[in-house]
Amino acid sequence: MAKREGGLAGMIPGQVIRLSKSCIGDAERRAVIGVLDREYLGMGAEVQQFEQALTEFFGRPAVCVVNGTAALHLALQACGIGRGDEVLVPSLTYVASFQAISATGATPIACDIDPDTLTLDWRDAEKRLSPNTKAVMPVHYSGGVGALDEIYAFAHKHGLRVIEDAAHAFGTVYHGKQVGGFGDIACFSFDGIKNITSGEGGCITASDEAVLQRIRDARLLGVEKDTEMRYSGGRSWEFQVRSQGWRFHMSNIMASIGLAQLQRSNEFSKKRRKLAISYDRLLSKYPRIKIINHDYRQIVPHIYVIRVSGLASKDELRSLLLAQNIQTGIHYMPNHWLDLYKKPPNYPNLSSTEQAYREILSLPLHADMTMKEVKYICETLIGILDKM
After folding, report:
1. Which of 3, 127, 157, 194 is catalytic?
2. Whether pLDDT at 2 is above 50
C-alpha cells in the first residue's frame, strides 16, 4: 500500500486506519482470566451481575442474550409474533433485522427511510399497513433515533408493538433518558465493534415483565425458571417446557467483558462524540458531501456515515481511499434487493433508500482513533473527490 503523506507523519508506514475495531485493555483481559480461573464458563454469576449493571444503567430491567439478532428474535417471539404476521422495518438496515423477523415465521415489510436521518419514515410505513401487521421495528441508524415520538404515536394508533433495533444506539439519550430506558421494547448488540462489547452478546430492555420472563425462558431452550438455577451455579434437572426455546443465553466470559466495558462506556461515548464532531467540522462545508445532522450532545454514534453526490463509482472511491490506508464501509445494502426478501414487481417504491445507498459511505470510527487520523481522512477524501 502507498505510504501516507502529510497528516500522519511519524506513524508506522503502511498502518491502516481501520473502519471499526474492538477497543479493549487490561481490565477486559483480567475479567476474562478471572472467569477462566473460576472454571465456570457458562451462564452464571457474571451474567447476573451484567444484567444488574445494565438494569441500573437503563433504569429498567435488562435481559442478556448471545447476540443482538437473538435479542430481536426473542423480543418478537415474546410478543406472540409468528407465522402469518407482518413487521414494518426500514430496508436500510443490516440483514440481521430482517432475519430476526423471518426467523419467527413472520414477514418483514420493507419500508422507506427519511432521507435526512436515514431512519424509518413512519409515513411510508403507515402506507404499508395490512390486517396482518403486528409490530414496527425502527432501526436507530448510526445512533440516531429519528422521529421516535411520531413512530410511537403511529404504533399506538394502530395497536402495534414497537421493538426498537437499538444496536447502534447504546449510550444515546432521548428526552433526557437513555435509549432502552423507556418505550415498549429495545434490543441492543454487544458484538466486537459496538459502542460497548462483550465479544458477542446483546440484551433486551422492557417494562413488560411477562415479555421479559418469556425471553428469560426462551433463551434457555424454553426451560421454565432455569435462569434462577443458572445464577446460583446450578441447573434444572426436572423441569417444564411449554413453548419453543433456543440456546441463546449469554456466557460468563462474555458478561465479564461486558461488565468491564460498561465501566468504560462514558469514556467511549465521549471519544466517539468528539471524533464525529471533528468529522462534521472538517466535512460540512465541502459541497459534494452531506453529513447526517446529529446532536452529539445526545447521540453516541456507532458509525460515521456521509453521503457523497455525483459519484460515477463508489467502488473506485473506496479503492483510492484504501490505497491511502483508509478503510471504508457501506451501511447497508437495501434488504429489499436480497433474494430472500426481494420486493415483488408491484411493490411501492423505496426511492429514498435506493438513492441513499448510491451515495452513502462509512468512514472510520472507533474509540482508539485520534483527531490526527480524522484530519488525515478528511483531507485525503476531499483531495480524491476533487479529482473525480
Report:
1. 194
2. no
Is-catalytic flag, 343? no
For the chain, the domains span 26-262, 265-385
List the single range of 21-30, 115-124, 228-237, 280-289 with lowest mean pLDDT.
228-237
For residue range 69-78, what is the model confidence (pLDDT) as tens digits? 999 999 999 9
The DSSP letter of residue 120 is B
User: Are 194 and 170 contacting, i.e. CB atoms less than 8 angstroms apart?
Assistant: yes
Q: Which residues pair with 319 in a beta bridge?
A: none
* Residues 30 and 213 sit within 8 Å (Cβ to Cβ): no
The DSSP code for 12 is P
The pLDDT value recorded for residue 233 is: 86
Residue whose grid cell is 458477542: 200
Q: Residues 281, 283, 289, 292: what is their CA dihedral angle, to the nearest 10 degrees?
A: -40
Please, are residues 268 and 195 in contact by the beta-carbon 8 Å criterion? yes
| The CATH number of the domain covering residues in 265-385 | 3.90.1150.10
Question: Beta strand 133-136 with 86-90: parallel, antiparallel or unpaired?
Answer: parallel
Residue 378, all three cell numbers: 478528511
How far apart CA 299 and CA 173 sit, in angstroms, is: 6
For residue 115, report the phi and psi dihedrals to the nearest 5 degrees. Answer: -65, -20
| pLDDT digits 0-9 by tens, 229-250 | 999 888 889 999 999 999 999 9
Mean pLDDT for all residues in the chain: 95
Question: How much of the chain is helix, strand and coil, in % rounded to 5?
Answer: 40, 15, 45
Residues 329-382 pLDDT 10s: 999 999 999 999 998 877 879 999 999 999 999 999 999 999 999 999 999 999
Which runs of E-coded beta strand occur in the chain?
A: 62-65, 86-90, 107-111, 133-136, 161-165, 173-174, 177-178, 185-189, 202-206, 289-291, 304-308, 360-363
Number of continuous H segments (helices) and E segments (strands) in the chain: 13, 12
ω into 332 cis (within 30 of 0): yes
**Residue 198: alpha-carbon gap to chain centroid:** 14
**What is the spatial distance between Cα 122 and Cα 145, in angstroms, rounded to a whole number?**
12
User: For domain 26-262, is the CATH number 3.40.50.12640?
Assistant: no
| Rounded Cα distance, 19 and 327, in Å | 5
